[in-house]
Structure formats: structure tokens, C-alpha cells
Amino acid sequence: MASAAPLYETYNRVPLRFERGEGVWLTTDKGERYLDFAAGIAVSSLGHSHPHLVEALTGQAEKLWHLSNLYEIPGQERLAARLVEATFADKAFFTNSGAEALECAIKTARRHFYINGEPDRIGIVTMEGAFHGRTLATIAAGGQAKYLEGFGPKAPGFDQVPFGDLDALEAAVTEKTAGVLIEPVQGEGGIRPIDPDVLRKIRKICDDKGALLILDEVQSGVGRTGRLFAHEWAGITPDIMAVAKGIGAGFPFGVCLSTASAADGMTAGTHGTTYGGNPLAMAVGNAVLDVILEDGFLDHINDVANALSQGLVSLKDRYPDLIEDVRGNGLMLGIKCAKSNMEVVQAFRAENLLSVPAGDNVVRLLPPLTLTAEEAREGLKRMDAALEKLTRG
């Protein structure tokens, strides 16, 4: 007998139905407007209905949607070349999601050692509090019990060390370790940036021990922190990096970027995807880069982010019983709450401002990167009103 609800009951959905969006605003089916400081969890990097993205997608949709990777796809070649030029990477593999980009990164690292005479070197060291996706391999990489429970044995080859513990990390990297997998800023874990000096030391540990450094920039990448990628603040480069979310600005795709040497085992037939890198995704990805790489765009992010973060610090000073700390950089910011973060999220939503809960009792603020100073001030005004009501009880 069919159940009353046709969908899997895996989400506790908020009873809001959004019908359309423009920039940082969303409008419900009842005509109510919300300021979107969630951006689909850091996905809608250029806001809603960005005209350049709409033009790119509709233009491609009139030509060709899907081929397969049996054939050459010019959009892939162009986007890969632009990503290589803008980053550390020599090679790119396009996927449908961040989890798939992480799967590709893990396979790339293990395959590298396999073809270079070290087939037992499969271990991946990660940090506690990490979130790398929902596949069987990526929940094992994240290591969080709440995501592992009930899905059978944990996939082998993944070990977690305490967040930021360099001694534990160095001890965990052995001759069986293929790579160290790190989020430069833990998103789901509560907007916890890894100190730039710690990132530099992790890079050195990998170099000294012959392991590959794999970065998960699914949430922190593509301008989110005010640099093209968050690791640039530390002045380091990884060997392999997973990217998604903002690179598609709402269209589902990701990419695994790698140096040529790390990807030397990824030869014909070793990995593949049906949809990854299709013409629609590539049209959007190239359009996103048009905007993100435009002169002055990253400066704009930093300018608006400075105003927003200063405003949040002011709110912290005004509401010390509600806000313990303000974290993050760029437009990847977190409010460490002194009371339930869900209460704060709900209070913000009551002021028609959308935010995202995270671990460590944090509320994430992840507005579109196109946010203006005026829109930032409007967001702060709504947060102030929400906090004031919480204070009054």
C-alpha cells in the first residue's frame, strides 16, 4: 500500500514555497519577499535569475542539451582551460555534484599511488567535523556518526584527527596514506576556518611524507571567501581539489581539479560519468567564470563582506546573551549562538531573512556574491529586529 507522502521523508522542510527569484530576493507563491542569505547553501553564487546566466543557459538549451563523453564537448575544453589558467591545476574532470567531485579526488589520489608501485597506499586522513558529501565513501571521509548510522560498514581507508591538531595529523600520515583531505573552511561543521599557518604546515607534512594534499572547496570556493579559492589566503596550492556549488550558480555540476602528476593514473576507462560536463552545465560554468573573473568582482565581495562582518560584530556587542562569536571571511560567515541556533534561524526567517544552520551551534550566512552594501545593511537590520525580539522573549 502506498504511503500518504510520495517523497522520501529525509528532509524537515520549512513550509515555504518559492515561485521566483531576482538577485538576492526570493518570492513565495503568496507574494511574500525574502532576503536570501542562504543562497541554496552557498550554491546561488550570482543570485537568482542572473541575466548573463539565463542567457547562457537558454541559448545552449536551444542548441544541444546532452551528448555523452563519447564525443568531444567544446564547452568542457574551454572551461577546463580557464580553470587551469586561474588555478594550480593542470587537469579537470567534470561531475554532477560536490560529492562526485570528492569521489573523483579520492580515486585520483589512490590511483596515482597504484600506478606508481604503491598499491597499498590508499589511506585518506581527514579532520573531525568535516562534511564531504553523502555517498558511502564521502560519509566515511567525513566520519560523523549521524551520517554513518544505519548504512552498513564504514568504507575502509578513512581516518579522522581532531580539528586543527597538527601533531595528530602528522602521526596519522604514514606510508599507507594516499592523501590528506581538508576543507579550508568547514562549512557544515560550523564555519570553522583552518588557520593559514596550519594549512601551510599541513602542506609541508604532505610534502615531507609523500602524501597528496586534497582540498574540499565545494562550499568555500569560487569567490565565496573573497579569493577565487579559500586556500589562496594561505599562499599554498593543493595537489587535487574538489569544487561544486558556486561554480554552477544553481545548475548542478562540479569539477575535480588536479596537477598532471597527481592525475597520472586517470587514464582512459578508469573513471567516467554519464551527465558530467554536458553542454548545458558547461555553458553555465563558463558564464559564471565570466562574472567571477571580471576585474573588480573579488574586490566587491571583500568590500561588502567587510561591511557585513563589521555589522555582525556590532550585533554581537549589542546581544552578548545571544551571540558568542562571529566567524569566517568573505561572504562565508557564521554566527556562533549562545542559545539554540535553530531559534535564531527561525527568528531571522520571521523577519523574512533566510539563513542556514550548521554544526557547533552556528548560523551560516551565505548570501549571493552579488550582494550590495545596501542589501547587506537591510540584512543586518532584519537580524537586529529578530535578535531584539528574542531578547524580549
Q: Can you characterise this structure?
A:
- The chain has 393 residues and is α/β, with parallel strands linked by helices.
- It has 2 domains: 18-50 and 296-392, Aspartate Aminotransferase, domain 1 (Alpha-Beta Complex), CATH 3.90.1150.10; 64-292, Aspartate Aminotransferase, domain 2 (3-Layer(aba) Sandwich).
- The protein contains 12 helices and 17 strands.
- It has helices spanning 39-42, 51-61, 74-86, 98-115, 136-142, 145-148, 166-172, 196-209, 279-292, 297-318, 341-350, 373-392, and strands spanning 18-22, 25-28, 33-36, 91-95, 123-127, 158-161, 177-182, 185-186, 192-193, 212-216, 240-243, 254-258, 323-329, 332-337, 353-354, 356-358, 362-365.
- The strands form 4 sheets. Strands 4-12-11-10-7-5-6 form a 7-stranded mixed sheet, sandwiched between helices.
- A hairpin with a 5-residue loop joins strand 8 and strand 9.
- Helix 2 (51-61) runs antiparallel to helix 9 (279-292) and helix 3 (74-86) runs parallel beside helix 9 (279-292).
- The termini are far apart.
Q: Provide the number of structural domains.
A: 2
What is the strand content? 15-25%
So, the CATH homologous superfamily of the largest domain?
A: Type I PLP-dependent aspartate aminotransferase-like (Major domain)
**What is the residue-averaged pLDDT?**
97
Quickly give the CATH architecture of the largest domain: 3-Layer(aba) Sandwich
Query: Tell me, what's the shape?
Result: globular
Q: Stretches where pLDDT falls below 50 for ≥5 residues?
A: none
Using only CA atoms, what is the Rg?
Answer: 21 Å
CATH-assigned fold name of the largest domain: Aspartate Aminotransferase, domain 2
Oligomer: single chain
Strands of the widest sheet, in order across it, are: 4-12-11-10-7-5-6
Number of strands: 17
Helix share, percent: 25-40%
The class by helix and strand makeup works out as alpha/beta
- Give the end-to-end Cα distance, rounded to a whole number of Å: 46 Å
Give helix and strand order, one letter per element, not per position.
Answer: EEEHHHEHEHHEHEEEHEEEHHEEHEEEH
Strand count, sense and barrel status of the largest sheet are: 7 strands, mixed
